[in-house]
């Protein structure tokens, strides 16, 4: 039960600080009327997500492994590093944590507008088309999950794994935010979309499916490249 609670807390924190930073940045821009370069706001939001992962990795990592992402748990399940019971329980805890995190944002900002939701088309800064958005999310998640599988494969990496994973997520967001807002995490997308509603909710299926596809590919690729060479 403790590890499920840890996943709940970790995902909640990720949504509050990651998505919350996106909402705060947009709110400040609207309130001041100052035009902030997209590159600057992208960098700030990217670091908010990355640092959230670092903070949680070194606080709950030794309890649950700090997946706080159904796509990561899915890859671990495929890799047989997580049994089916824990996989299902992790995903439930993560989704509930994301929903509570989004509810906290609604209370804190007094609005359900945006909430750092993901989207394509009119909801994308680059007006990314649906097919492009799907591929972007698959590639981003593949890269993120592959990094996680690699850095956690050796016990000697445990001291720096949280930092590596957090910086990788920052890197992922720097590229992905202009395209889709960057999901790579079905729970992180689901929670805010449920409260934002509208197009964000109607498009959330893509940000659930694409990260799972990317995670599955990463798990299979890692299994192949990490297996002993038989030649």
UniProtKB/TrEMBL annotation:
TM regions (residue ranges): 34-58, 87-110, 130-151, 163-184, 204-225
Cellular localisation: Cell membrane
Gene3D superfamilies in alphabetical order: Glycerol uptake facilitator protein
One GO MF term attached to the UniProt entry: water channel activity
Claim: Methyltransferase is one of the keywords in the record: no
Membrane topology of this protein: Multi-pass membrane protein
Signal peptide positions (record): 1-24
Major location category of this protein: membrane
GO CC annotations, alphabetized: plasma membrane
Superkingdom, natural source: Bacteria
Keywords: Cell membrane, Membrane, Signal, Transmembrane, Transmembrane helix, Transport
UniProt key word Cytoplasm: no
InterPro entries to which the protein is assigned, alphabetical: Aquaporin-like, Aquaporin_transptr, MIP, MIP_CS
Family: Belongs to the MIP/aquaporin (TC 1.A.8) family.
Identification of the protein by name: Aquaporin Z
